[in-house]
Design brief:
222 residues; alpha+beta; globular
């Protein structure tokens, strides 16, 4: 098993880094899924094609990490059907995640695609890197969060501006759970039983996805 990487909670030393750790807790934990955000194209099981990043280079490394907070599924995804994964950094608990080393411009382009915007303009990361959070809009995935740093580079992710108890929870689709769970398993820090138990216990998946059902998806290996 691969050792977990510890996130240093102190603010990163620079507000204009060239590289960042884009930290995914949803379907982009899966490198094959992430490749469609970086290189463009339509992932299996999705109905939307992505333009990709200006720089199509894949991350040279990805690290298993755990974030403080909670994962839940909410809203209705037009790409997958069913709920999408969101991160509530103010909730208690832990979130299994995967930190991908990308350029700051690639992070901006990935975030733009999640916000249904065209890749191109670089995001101003000053506020999120100094304050830990930056709300760019009212939509889902328009709130940037910086939980800290790894090796002097910022750990960055995005989520919704609301909390997990502010919206109805919605069960995620089979394709979405498959990518998320398989991506976490591929990170190497958690075995299949741990991943399945974690996913099945998240609000939205709870009472809709059993640990056994997630284990079965993992056997298919997306």
């Amino acid at each position: 098993m691969k050792a977990l990487t510890t996130i240093d909670p102190t603010p990163p030393p620079r507000t204009r880094p060239e590289r960042v750790w884009y930290t995914s807790y949803g379907s982009n934990t899966h490198l094959g899924r992430l490749a469609h955000y970086i290189r463009g194209g339509r992932p299996p099981g999705a109905v939307r094609a992505y333009p990709g990043c200006r720089d199509p280079a894949m991350p040279p490394c990805s690290l298993p990490v755990e974030l403080t907070g909670a994962l839940y599924f909410a809203t209705e995804s037009p790409v997958w059907g069913g709920g999408r994964a969101f991160y509530d950094p103010d909730a208690s608990g832990r979130v299994l995640a995967r930190a991908h080393l990308v350029s700051a411009d690639q992070f901006s382009d990935i975030a733009a695609q999640e916000m249904y915007r065209e890749p191109g303009p670089a995001l101003d990361l000053t506020e999120v890197l100094t304050e830990g959070r930056s709300v760019l809009g009212e939509g889902r995935y328009e709130t940037l969060v910086c939980p800290g740093q790894v090796d002097g580079l910022p750990v960055l992710t995005f989520t919704a501006p609301w909390g997990m108890h502010d919206v109805p929870w919605v069960a995620p689709s089979r394709a979405y759970v498959r990518f998320l769970a398989t991506g976490l398993l591929s990170a190497g820090a958690w075995d299949g039983d741990a991943v399945a138990e974690y996913v099945a216990a998240c609000p939205g998946a709870l009472d809709h996805w059993s640990r056994e059902a997630v284990v079965e998806l993992l056997r298919e290996r997306a």
